[in-house]
Amino acid sequence: MRHIILISCSMLLLMSFISVNDEYFPEPIYPIANPDSPIVSLGRELFHDPILSKDSTVSCASCHSQYNAFAHSDHALSHGIADRIGTRNAPALVNLAWSESFMWDGASFSLEAQVLTPLTAHHEMDNSLDTILNRLNKHPKYSYLVQQAFGKSPIQTKHVLKAIADYESTLISRNSRYDSMRMHLVEFTEQEKKGYTLFKQHCNRCHAEPLFTNGQFANNALPIDTSLNDMGRFRITDDSAHIRHFKIPTLRNLLYSFPYMHDGRFKRLRDVLNHYAKGFNMHDETRSIQNLIPLSSNDITDLMSFLHALTDRTFIFNPVFSQIHYPQRNQ
Amino acid sequence: MIAKTPVVLNSSIVHNNDSIIITSFKAYIVIPTLTDTIVHLLDIEDNLSCSLPDDAESVIIGINSMQTVRTNFSGALDPIHGMFWTWNSGYINVKIEGISQRSMQRNRIFQMHLGGFTAPHQESIPLRIPRNTSIKLSIDIAPSIDALLNNHQGTVMSPGKDAHELMHILQQSINIEQ
Question: Is this complex scored with an ipTM above 0.95?
Fold first, then answer.
């Protein structure tokens, strides 16, 4: 009996310790699903299965691969079926449970709603919900998984959306060196400290800690790509104040989520920092960012050292998020 | 109806020296009651009538903001019905599609997708109705089609001031009969 009490006490102490040190993280907006739940298992399977695309060649994971922090590094713009190229860089799927809107332009109001876009967009999976449901309902694996997850079949639209959304809600990254520093488990190097100070001076307003985004939209003065002529959030709100405003992305795991910006124009992190450091002229609607961020070459190196500390390898390589590989049956 | 002619799917109606063919008409009807909110999707290809609870005092054409963000994507609100914008979340409250020689679009098609759930473009039409009786809603879609063809080259498919204008014209063209 004494032994059991002792273990219980230890666990209580440990839980208390984690709780206290996690206080720097805000409460999520979206409920985070249990990673062990059958619904998440179904979502995980769907996320990695090209069956969702019109010609069964492209899955969600094709553009949001785990080893790229659930972004994509091969192309500046997303790559759909039949080698179709989209108009925007595939964003990293991380800490989505803390988001109020989704997509570069905030088009989707919920995690479930955002699932619909890639399924049906011409440049992405170009499929119809009818076709997807027919395929899934004929597939023994999905009949089983849906029964496990929802206790009923056939699979319906709401099941597909809920399962993928729940899976995506579990893609949480909060175990970087930065997080360890916040939990007083490690101390930053001198260079990281300098970079952190520069970050708080110049970047934190938009890329706010600890999510490294404030969830808002901004025009960061990139010269417009006339081949895309992307008006950003303006397309959604019809408000001229939002012309060329795009979602401020998280900086977590950005070493893995290159290329950068909504159109993937920068392959290297240093190019991004140079864009902000060289200054720019804002002649249009927004004044979100309009001044030169005075960064020397040494400053940029220090800042990059800090940004490296946002890498969470336990997230990038966590098998809980990965595709499940079932053993092949002998025919 | 187009003018005073009842619309028949895929049949030609002469209007304004033009031959108009309606290929799709769908609209959301929301019925708030004391205990519930009932959502119907009326579709000219399927059914243009729905049951009305005795205590209903109003019907609304269109899905409002709260219903949109709280949708469970099932039943009438399943995106499989083609009434949910996937590039821009939200339901299409009224969808009218057809063919007109006045359309500037490919193959002379016209497309009117009206909706919007966020300010300032929240588009729905509330209608007061009498209790305890059946009602017949007649909508003359000719004025809105004329506006679509004359002012918008035959296509409006996103929330905004154009959709608002057309929704307003539709609202002016509704007649309620017992």
Answer: no
Q: Which residues contact A225 (CB under 8 A, 6 or more apart)?
A: A263, A265
- The backbone region for A117, taken as left when phi is positive above 0, alpha when psi lies in -120 to 50, beta otherwise, is alpha
B:63-102 residues touching chain A, CB 8 A cutoff: 68-69, 72-74, 78-80, 84, 86-90
Tokens of A290: 């309009």
pLDDT per residue over B135-173, tens digit each? 899 999 999 999 999 999 999 999 999 999 999 999 999
**What global pTM score does this model have?**
0.87
Measure the CA–CA gap between A321 and A302, rounded to whole angstroms: 32
Exposed/middle/buried for residue B18 (C-beta within 10 Å: 0-12, 13-18, 19+): middle
Question: Which pLDDT band holds residue A285 (cuts at 50, 70, 90)?
Answer: very low
User: What are the start-end ranges of the H helices in A170-321?
Assistant: 177-182, 190-202, 234-237, 269-278, 297-308, 313-316
Q: Read off the tokens for B56.
A: 């209903």
Residue with token string 């608002």: B164
Residues of chain B positioned with their CB less than 8 A from the CB of A109: 68-69, 89-90
Residue B121 touches partner A, C-beta closer than 8 Å: yes
